[in-house]
Design a protein that fits this description.
The complex is a heterodimer. Chain A is α+β, with helices and mostly antiparallel strands. In chain A, 70% of the residues lie in helices and 9% in strands. Chain A folds into two domains: 2-55 and 164-299, no CATH class; 61-158, Alpha-Beta Plaits (2-Layer Sandwich). Chain A has a four-stranded antiparallel β-sheet with strand order 2-3-1-4. The longest helix of chain A has 44 residues, at 216-259. Chain B has one domain (2-219): 3-Layer(aba) Sandwich (Rossmann fold). In chain B, strand 9 and strand 10 form a beta hairpin. Mean pLDDT of chain B is 88; it is low at 221-231. The chains are: A alpha+beta, B alpha/beta. Bound molecules: adenosine-5'-diphosphate and magnesium ion (MG). Magnesium ion (MG) is lined by residues 41-42, 162 of chain B.
Chain lengths: 304, 231
């Protein structure tokens, strides 16, 4: 109980120190907020782009056009072979007859088609690869394999732009992780430096505290809380920055979407993001303070 | 309570402050440490408070060998030694109460206990009622007494004071001395470094004279005239 009380006291006293120097505190918090806002902003952006384009992982298809002289029985055989191959989620055969019937129904060229003696359409295997858009190499493999069959005229990839687009998104996310890592280090450095200055400013207090028997842990505690508070406030600041920025952008995004006849609406950061930001900010602040305290507190001893 | 055996202290800059000091102060005694400026009085006190460690020899305080004490046990050791400085070393931005409470806070005392003991300590130094004042709002003598209250608040068995009356007029100085005498009467072992020989003589207490980092006289004020005559 008294242990808990002591921690609460430290926390309150740290908060008091921050409140007594509002400008300096604000400055540090805003710098940290910006550093934390960038990865969150990027993440929200990527999420929105994915939303806008929908989940296209099922959109990739391979159409295998067989040569016109391939009989239907052989086509059925090829369908069976295809279905047994790894990397194929599903495959269907659109026979020339079925294709013609559909074309007749949809195009309204019925009379003209009746004039044809032979069905000019080939049998087509419609394949959905198992790999989806995330693995362009597997799809390319499958395409090459199908192309090598003697019965095959051409193999056509539908929706391969999705794969390319997803590759770009994946790159963006990688970039995001990198940015988050670097900016996290930045946050640690900012807090570390702020705490270092604070330790210098409170040198007399630290000396006297050690003189009357304060342990290193006791002396360190308020600085750790200060660092964690900086991180918490920085995380909050980052969330507000991103939320406001998206709120400002939303009308433009909506207008743009409307011109494409889309009902897409920009999604702001989620509550979960707030949790992650506050957690990450607090942790980074704590680490920064811990590093600074470890380096600078031990050197301050009473006496001389 | 305090025993120095052939103690030498050389500071990091190579300056030898103590050459060979041996002394013993039994529990419950009050002793003065005198000598010229630069003789090594403060160094003796710093060795007792474990603000410095001896270069050679042994310093025993309350049975602990300060030269061998592990770093993590230093805080617990320091809680058993109250220290009063000439410049009192109060925290200027904290009220009197917080300054005096600091030794109890670091020791993790309960709030009620802290409140009770701080008031008791302030009462002892005649400053009850000044809890919420800042040090700067007090006179020099009052600041010194706040420093004393902080040194005694956790009731350490040993109290050391470095020129505690250096900044005080004779009236205040003798008041502070009276305070030390009362603390001594309740059993606190006290060592006071001072160059106010008048106060020392008046007290009739034991006096250890330090000269050039050595003990030049002990055995109380009776011996002092002889030493002075030899100079
Ligand atoms: N921290 C220190 N570093 C180096 N030399 C010191 C230090 N403290 C004291 N000294 C030297 O040690 C000698 C004794 O000093 P001190 O113990 O302060 O004497 P006193 O208190 O009797 O005036 C002096 O010559 C002083 O210059
Ligand atoms: Mg001195």
């Amino acid at each position: 109980m008294s242990w808990l009380l002591r921690h609460v006291q430290s926390l309150l006293s740290s908060a008091g120190h921050l409140a007594r120097a509002p400008i300096a505190t604000l400055f540090t918090v805003v710098v940290m907020g910006m550093a934390l806002a960038l990865p969150l902003g990027l993440d929200v952006l990527v999420r929105n782009v994915r939303n806008a384009t929908g989940d296209f992982s099922g959109a990739i298809g391979i159409s295998v056009y067989l040569k016109t002289n391939v009989p239907e029985s052989r086509a059925q055989q090829l369908l069976k072979n295809t279905r047994e191959r790894n990397g194929v989620r599903s495959a269907t055969l659109i026979t020339a007859t079925a294709a013609l019937a559909q074309f007749r129904k949809q195009s309204g060229f019925g009379a003209a088609l009746d004039a044809l003696e032979d069905n000019p359409l080939p049998h087509v295997l419609a394949i959905t690869p198992a790999a989806g858009s995330s693995d362009p190499a597997a799809i390319e493999n499958l395409r090459r394999y199908l192309q090598s069959w003697p019965e095959v005229e051409t193999v056509q990839l539908d929706g391969d732009w999705v794969a390319r687009f997803n590759a770009i998104l994946a790159l963006l996310r990688r970039l995001l992780l990198l940015a988050a890592g670097l900016l996290g280090l930045g946050v640690v450095a900012v807090v570390g430096n702020t705490i270092r200055l604070e330790i210098q400013n409170r040198r007399a207090e630290i000396e006297v505290t050690k003189l009357v028997g304060g342990t290193n842990a006791f002396v360190r505690r308020p600085f750790l809380y200060t660092g964690a508070l900086y991180g918490l406030l920085g995380g909050l600041c980052a969330f507000v920055v991103v939320a406001v920025a998206l709120w400002l952008l939303a009308p433009f995004a909506q207008r743009l979407a409307q011109t494409y006849g889309s009902s897409f609406a920009l999604q702001g950061p989620a509550l979960r993001d707030l949790g992650i930001l506050l957690g990450a900010g607090t942790l980074l602040g704590w680490v920064g303070a811990w590093l600074a305290a470890g380096r600078h507190l031990a050197r301050i001893e009473p006496g001389t | 309570m305090i025993t120095f055996s052939a103690v030498a202290k050389r500071y990091r800059n190579g300056r030898e402050a103590l050459g060979n000091v041996s002394l013993h102060i039994p529990p419950g005694e009050m002793v003065f440490l005198t000598g010229r400026s630069g003789a090594g009085k403060s160094t003796v006190l710093k060795l007792i408070a474990l603000l410095e460690r001896p270069t050679r020899g042994q310093v025993l305080v309350g049975g602990e060998n300060t030269g061998k004490l592990a770093a993590r046990r230093i805080p617990a050791f320091r809680r058993k030694v109250g220290v009063v400085f000439q410049d009192h070393r109060l925290l200027a931005d904290r009220p009197v109460f917080d300054n005096v409470a600091l030794p109890l806070i670091v020791a993790g005392s309960a709030l009620k206990e802290i409140d009770k003991r701080v008031r008791a300590a302030l009462d002892q130094v005649g400053l009850l009622g000044s809890e919420r004042q800042l040090p700067a709002e007090l006179s020099v003598g009052e600041q010194q007494r706040v420093g004393i209250a902080r040194a005694i608040v956790s009731r350490p068995p040993v109290l050391i004071a470095d020129e505690p009356t250096g900044n005080l007029d004779p009236q205040l100085a003798s008041e502070v001395m009276g305070l030390f005498r009362r603390l001594n009467e309740v059993g606190v072992t006290i060592l006071v470094a001072t160059h106010d020989l008048h106060l020392v003589r008046e007290s009739g207490l034991r006096e250890i004279v330090i000269e050039n980092g050595r003990v030049a006289g002990d055995e109380g004020s009776l011996v002092l005239p002889i030493i002075e005559a030899r100079r």
